[in-house]
Specification:
This protein is α/β, with parallel strands linked by helices. It has two domains: 133 residues, ornithine cyclodeaminase, domain 1; 182 residues, Rossmann fold. The protein has eleven helices and 15 strands. An eight-stranded parallel sheet has the order 9-8-7-10-11-14-12-13. The protein has a seven-stranded mixed sheet with strand order 2-3-4-5-6-1-15. The structure holds nicotinamide-adenine-dinucleotide.
Length: 358
């Protein structure tokens, strides 16, 4: 696939108008691009941004915790563009017909501070999380892995499967969820994508013969989805669901046996599986592997763990990629978001002239 160029300037919309990508338009963009191509190009964009890690301002996300979940802000900037995502994580939202994870985001130009795009990011988060997981697995999973267990078959699951199929050629999926209807939904959706996943009755059965284990469950407590003796040598674990203080999926003994790879260490120490380990336990930031500074998997027997929590640069890359896709289209909603008086200092006069028109 040719390297994608994201530097193409966009036609400038009028100053007061900000392109808004709604859920409907995001779905159109993904389907017109093709889900697999979208995932591959998004993974490439994230990988390229991880390669220039030092050009980004990086902060752990700002989290507001409550009894039922968390609301988070995830900002970053590369000095030219600034991005921020608003995202929640409410594991029990499904009971009232809501998403566990819902999000939207803003991309702005740094030199004026003006937003250049606002987008839904619920779908985009599922796509970027899956693209990041598969991108990490390219460096960490055993060579030629074809079989992945997916534990937790909710909103993120199919995206994970398709990203691993697209980037690594994984084509055997073994599903387990405590709610059988989630696994059935996931299997139906994956069958439409030409896959034949198997639904299993326990996590132990699901991980049999799996070279890759993805855990993507939602629970607002320390859960133990995998215990130590379930994980054989050579396995790659893609741990996605534990992403908050007090919310983990793996028994700590697994962590002690694994080579651990993280996105942004200060944030993962607070939110990831490694919150269960002493703060000096060695981990490697993934960008160091991508840049060749560290090896990813070093042997066929090693257990590798991608302790995914989701980092702001992935959202920055995702928004930048979506903006790139918008370059040849006006298929967005123009939001009248920014006041644009004839004289920038005459904001009040603009209001008075509007009154005269009422
Ligand atoms: P979801 O609520 O749609 O699905 C979660 C599924 O997990 C449900 O089907 C539930 O029945 C299942 N589950 C719960 N406990 C289980 C257990 N013990 N064993 C097996 N299955 C179990 O949620 P989602 O949107 O798919 O998100 C899943 C998790 O991933 C959430 O915790 C979310 O916060 C996290 N997440 C992480 C990232 C990241 O970047 N790391 C991004 C998005 C979501």
């Amino acid at each position: 696939m040719p390297a994608i160029q994201l530097a193409v300037p966009l036609p400038t919309p009028p100053l007061n108008v900000v392109p808004f990508v709604s859920v409907e338009r995001m779905m159109r963009l993904v389907l017109q691009t093709g889900i697999e191509r979208f995932l591959a190009e998004l993974a490439e964009t994230i990988e390229n941004d991880f390669r220039r890690w030092n050009s980004f301002e990086k902060h752990s996300r700002l989290a507001a915790h409550s009894r039922d979940g968390v609301i988070e802000l995830m900002p970053t900037s590369d000095g030219e563009l600034y991005a921020v995502k608003y995202v929640n994580g409410h594991p029990y939202n499904g009971r009232s017909g809501r998403q566990t994870v819902a999000a939207f985001g803003v991309l702005s130009e740094v030199w004026t501070g003006y937003p250049v795009m606002i987008s839904e990011m619920t779908l985009l988060t599922a796509l970027r999380t899956a693209a990041t997981s598969a991108m990490a697995a390219k460096y960490l999973a055993p060579q030629g892995a074809r079989t992945m267990a997916i534990i937790g078959n909710g909103a993120q699951a199919e995206f994970q499967a398709l990203a691993f199929k697209t980037l690594l050629g994984v084509d055997q999926f073994r599903l387990f969820d405590i709610d059988a209807s989630a696994s059935e939904k996931c299997a139906r959706n994956l069958a439409k994508a030409g896959l034949s996943p198997k639904i299993l009755r326990s996590p132990e059965e699901a991980i049999e013969h799996a070279q890759i284990i993805t855990t993507v469950t939602a629970d607002k407590q320390m859960a133990t989805i995998l215990i130590d003796n379930m994980v054989g040598p050579g396995t790659h674990i893609n741990a996605v669901g534990g992403d908050c203080p007090g919310k983990t999926e793996l028994h700590p003994d697994i962590l002690r046996r694994s080579g651990i790879f993280v996105e942004f260490e200060p944030q993962t120490r607070i939110e990831g599986e490694i919150q269960q380990l002493p703060s000096d336990h060695a981990v490697v930031e993934l960008h160091r592997v991508i840049s060749g500074e560290y090896l990813g998997r070093t042997s066929g027997n090693e257990i590798t763990l991608f302790d995914s929590v989701g980092f702001a640069i992935e959202d920055f890359s995702a928004l930048r990629y979506v903006r790139h896709l918008l370059r040849d289209t006006t298929d967005y909603e123009p939001l009248d978001l920014l006041a644009d008086p004839d004289d920038p200092r005459d904001l009040f006069g603009m209001l008075m002239r509007a009154e005269a028109r009422l």
